[in-house]
Specification:
There is one protein chain. The chain is an alpha+beta fold. It has 17 helices and 17 strands. The chain folds into two domains: 314 residues, Bira Bifunctional Protein, Domain 2 (BirA Bifunctional Protein, domain 2, 2-Layer Sandwich), CATH 3.30.930; 90 residues, Anticodon-binding domain (Rossmann fold), CATH 3.40.50. 41% of the residues lie in helices and 20% in strands. The strands form three sheets. It has a nine-stranded mixed beta sheet, sandwiched between helices. A hairpin with a 5-residue loop joins strand 3 and strand 4. The relative contact order is 0.12.
């Protein structure tokens, strides 16, 4: 009989399978993110993976629009896989949660999709933990988001990270006073997001801004440093002719002062020419970086007009999304092992076929006591079954033999200490718990 060769299938480019060890690291970072949400009072919500394209495209920026996974559903509607969380949260707040008391602290976690060119740390399917503080225009809200982000970096054990910080109100304040339309401002911000500063200056000239404005922008693009007071003082001097830009500088200083006076310490790099690609940002913007990676571990900022755009009332908001994939990469680069408490894992091995049912019975008893247990199902010899249990990281094995069983006993083997003893079945759960400390 001719053998039919079945095709071999690989993952779609930019998508990944996660094997157990990688999954463990991802779940560890997710677990800390979720724990942090609870500590800060953020309530979890779940939003759809598929949203209206019109919603997602409203303030996403041209590049994001080009990289969305879009399609028409069977009803003929143009929809897309979500490329980020904020638009969905803004929709939720503008609609079903419009009457909830403010502030709202909302958290969500899940997969996102962008048709980027796959490269190290950049995937087409990726995971984020998202935190949104809705309803406060005060600098205390911005300070909380910065503090929360720093808290997560510390809990993960990351070292020598820094925050790149800017304020959209500085550049937009200048351009608005120069009568540059919002659409043109957005194009300029897209160029700055890609660090194309010379092209951004050309774009500004094409908008017929004054030569004084071009000179101001050129100097601002170079205004960068680790000492906030010095950099912001210089920036304020540069924008002294632009009232709303001065207010933005002062707002950023208020935020950073609150963080400092609150005892939160992390390295800051202020960049007056820093912009993020998403068009909805109105104030503070920031990205955390680890020295081993040249890509941001996350990003966020203030967006005070998005919820109103989606039909809600005027609502101030600030938030941040942390890249779970990139946090895990940074941990790996810094050789940080997840601080996961060793969990009990018990394998029950019947000595003979006649005792298989007893092995199943014992596994049910252990699970009722919240002890993970597996019954041997491959029909292996005892020695092979012990080798397999050891290879898979079992903490204990239970050998079910006829002689011990006649006395309601089994042999309990501690796989780490290589110690084995016969104990009564009624004491089995207690003995396993005790041996794990």
């Amino acid at each position: 009989m001719q053998r039919i060769e079945m095709p071999r299938f690989n993952t779609i480019r930019g998508m990944r399978d996660f094997l157990p060890k990688h999954t463990e690291r991802m779940r560890y970072a997710e677990g800390l993110s979720r724990e942090l949400a609870g500590l800060y009072g953020y309530e979890e919500v779940i939003t759809p993976i598929v949203e209206s394209y019109k919603l997602l495209a409203a303030k996403s920026g041209e590049e994001m629009k080009q990289r969305m996974y879009t399609f028409k559903d069977l009803g003929g509607r143009k929809v897309a896989l979500r490329p980020e969380f904020t638009a969905s949260i803004a929709r939720l707040v503008a609609g079903k949660m419009r009457n909830e008391p403010k502030p709202m602290r909302l958290f969500c976690m899940g997969s996102l999709y962008r048709y980027d060119e796959p490269q190290y740390g950049r995937f087409r399917e990726f995971w984020q933990a998202d935190y949104e503080l809705i309803g406060s225009e005060k600098p205390e809200a911005d300070a909380e988001i910065l503090t929360l982000t720093n808290d997560l970096m510390e809990r993960l054990g990351l070292r020598n990270y820094h925050f790149r910080i800017g304020h959209m109100g500085i550049l937009r304040g200048i351009l608005s006073q120069e009568n540059v339309e919002e659409e043109s401002q957005n194009r300029l911000m897209q160029l700055l997001d890609k660090k194309q500063r010379d092209e951004a200056l050309i774009a500004a000239r094409n908008c017929n801004v004054s030569e004084e404005c071009v000179g101001t922008l050129k100097r601002l693009f170079k205004a960068k440093g680790k000492e906030p007071s010095r950099v912001l003082r210089r920036v304020k001097e540069e924008v002294e002719e632009y009232g709303s830009a001065i207010a933005a500088v002062e707002n950023l200083w208020d935020i950073l002062e609150l963080v400092r006076d609150g005892g939160v310490k992390f390295e800051i790099v202020i960049e007056a020419g820093f912009a993020r690609g998403l068009e909805y940002y109105t104030g503070l913007i920031f990205e955390p970086y680890a020295p081993e990676l040249d890509i941001a571990l996350g990003g966020g900022g203030r967006y005070d007009k998005l919820i109103e755009l989606f039909g809600g009332g005027p609502t101030a908001a600030v938030g941040v999304a942390h890249g779970i994939d990139r946090l895990v990469l940074a941990m790996k680069k810094q050789k940080i092992s997840p601080r996961i408490r060793e969990e009990k894992r018990v394998v029950i091995i019947p000595i003979s076929d006649e005792l298989k049912a007893k092995a199943i019975e014992l596994s049910l008893m252990l699970r009722e006591a919240k002890i993970p247990a597996e019954a041997e199902v491959m029909g292996r010899t005892v020695s092979r079954a012990l080798e397999d249990a050891d290879r898979k990281g079992a903490t204990h094995t239970i050998l079910v033999g006829p002689d011990e069983l006649r006395e309601d006993k089994v042999s309990l083997r501690d796989m780490k200490k290589r110690e084995q003893r016969v104990i009564e079945i009624k004491n089995l759960c207690e003995e396993i718990e005790w041996s794990m400390g």
